[in-house]
């Protein structure tokens, strides 16, 4: 083991590759906090998290003022102890998105450092359940996209080997959503998975009606039909919906997931390492889900989640939304629609350090510790 001697904080703003709209918002930019941790032996780990356009400056101040300084002198291998200490240190803002996103950037850096010191890829060190996982694509399914373009994208995805496509719902009427999904089902046939995502756009009555309107299309899941904190509403819907209910991208604590699992309010768990606080709590949620016979299909961050899905037995899907290409070298390898677990030591991301340095927003670059 070796103590932490230096931390570097940076933030890079990445523009989405395509226009992204859903029932409640547009994804305008990915503010990407990046934490680099160096230990006394010179080993380095890099971690990150993200926003969809707001809050990045606050997260960087939280890291610089309250989290990163507490890392100095800690044994880098004591990942669980560090995560717990940082969570308790920020108890006044926990549980909340800002704190969890900041914690995630630190925790993924610590796991990267741990894996590199061990000479192992994340998927092996965290469990090693399998070496590949199926992908579904979201990039061609945004709410503003016309029906014919949705169909063409789903056909192209199937031909490329992807096992499924996800489409946003939340048009003014259930009939309009049903027409769009029906056209895709007719085009790709019965064996290809279709998932739909409401992005918390419905109240309870509308969610029930929309689930019934989409019943005939044999959906892989209905995602975030209602507000993420409406556990009771999701539990009621899960009991009567003809398709699985998926929840998780807007939950920021293992305790939030515990409520959903205990109530039977979701059967697909979409825990996001960048939003729940990192790899440490992600694995807790995944194992909790496995104990209840539930699948894990994490939201976004395919470059990181491919390794985590392959680490656990109940890892079900990787969501294909490329976002780190501009600041990485070799990207995620996908073969016939299957994400291949990276074999290089670390969390599986080949960072382009020079490009990160070039793009980093100068006002948020901070160096803490020895030799700075």
Summarize the structure.
The chain has 372 residues and is of the alpha/beta class.
Rg (CA only): 20 Å
CATH topology of the largest domain: TIM Barrel
Q: What's the helical proportion of residues?
A: 25-40%
Taken in chain order, the helices and strands follow as EEEHHHHEHEHEHEHEHEHHEHEEEHE
Name the CATH architecture of the largest domain.
Alpha-Beta Barrel
Query: Strand percentage, roughly?
Result: 15-25%
From the spread of the alpha carbons, the general shape counts as globular
Number of domains: 2
Total beta strands: 14
Q: Counting H and I runs of at least 4 residues, what is the number of helices?
A: 13
Question: Major sheet, described briefly?
Answer: 10 strands, mixed
Overall pLDDT level: 96
The structural class is: alpha/beta
Q: Which CATH first-tier class of the largest domain would you pick? A: Alpha Beta
The CATH H-level homologous superfamily of the largest domain: Enolase-like C-terminal domain
Ends distance: 22 Å
The stretches of 5 or more residues where confidence is low (pLDDT under 50) are none
Domain Mandelate racemase/muconate lactonizing enzyme C-terminal: 147-244
Keywords: Magnesium, Metal-binding
GO molecular function: hydro-lyase activity; magnesium ion binding
Cofactor: Mg(2+)
Labels describing this entry:
single chain; 372 residues; alpha/beta; Enolase-like, domain 1; TIM Barrel; 2 domains; ten-stranded mixed β-sheet; 13 helices
Please provide a written account of the structure.
Pfam families: MR_MLE_C, MR_MLE_N. It comes from Marinibacterium profundimaris. Keywords: Magnesium, Metal-binding. This is Mandelate racemase. The protein is α/β, with parallel strands linked by helices. It has two domains: 4-119 and 353-369, Enolase-like, domain 1 (2-Layer Sandwich); 123-340, TIM Barrel (Alpha-Beta Barrel). It is 38% helix and 17% strand. The strands form two sheets. Strands 4, 5, 6, 7, 8, 9, 10, 11, 12 and 13 form a ten-stranded mixed β-sheet that branches. A four-stranded antiparallel β-sheet has the order 3-2-1-14, with helices on both faces. β4 (132-137), α5 and β5 (164-168) form a beta-alpha-beta unit. The mean pLDDT is 96.
């Amino acid at each position: 083991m070796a103590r932490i001697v230096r931390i570097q904080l940076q933030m890079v703003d990445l523009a989405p590759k395509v226009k992204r709209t859903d029932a409640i918002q547009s994804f305008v930019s990915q503010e990407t906090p990046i934490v680099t941790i160096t230990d006394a032996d010179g080993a380095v780990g890099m971690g990150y998290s993200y926003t969809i356009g707001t809050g990045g400056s606050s997260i960087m101040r939280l890291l610089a003022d309250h989290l990163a300084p507490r890392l100095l002198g800690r044994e880098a291998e004591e990942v669980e102890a560090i995560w717990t200490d940082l969570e308790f240190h920020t108890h006044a803002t926990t549980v909340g998105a800002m704190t969890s996103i900041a914690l995630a950037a630190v925790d993924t850096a610590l796991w990267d450092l741990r894996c590199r010191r061990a000479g192992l890829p994340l998927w092996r060190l965290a469990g090693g359940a399998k070496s590949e996982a199926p992908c579904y694509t979201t990039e061609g399914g945004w709410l503003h996209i016309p029906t014919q373009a949705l169909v063409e994208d789903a056909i192209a995805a199937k031909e490329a080997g992807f096992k499924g496509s996800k489409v946003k719902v939340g048009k003014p009427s259930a009939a309009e959503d049903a027409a769009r999904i029906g056209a895709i089902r007719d085009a790709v046939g019965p064996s290809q998975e279709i998932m739909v995502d409401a992005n918390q756009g419905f109240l309870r009555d509308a969610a029930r009606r929309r689930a019934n309107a989409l019943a005939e299309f044999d959906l892989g899941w209905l995602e975030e039909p209602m507000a993420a904190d409406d556990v009771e509403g999701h539990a009621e819907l899960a009991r009567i919906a003809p398709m699985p209910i998926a929840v998780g991208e807007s939950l920021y604590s293992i305790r939030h997931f515990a409520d959903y699992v205990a109530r039977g309010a979701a059967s697909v768990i979409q825990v996001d390492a960048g939003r729940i606080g990192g790899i440490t709590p992600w694995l807790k949620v995944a194992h909790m889900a496995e104990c209840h016979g539930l699948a894990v299909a994490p939201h976004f961050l395919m470059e990181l989640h491919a390794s985590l899905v392959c680490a656990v037995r109940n890892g079900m899907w990787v969501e294909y939304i490329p976002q780190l290409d501009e600041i990485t070298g070799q990207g995620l390898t996908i073969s016939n629609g299957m994400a291949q677990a990276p074999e290089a030591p670390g969390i599986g991301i080949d960072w382009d350090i020079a490009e990160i340095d070039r793009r980093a927003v100068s006002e948020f670059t901070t160096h803490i510790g020895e030799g700075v």
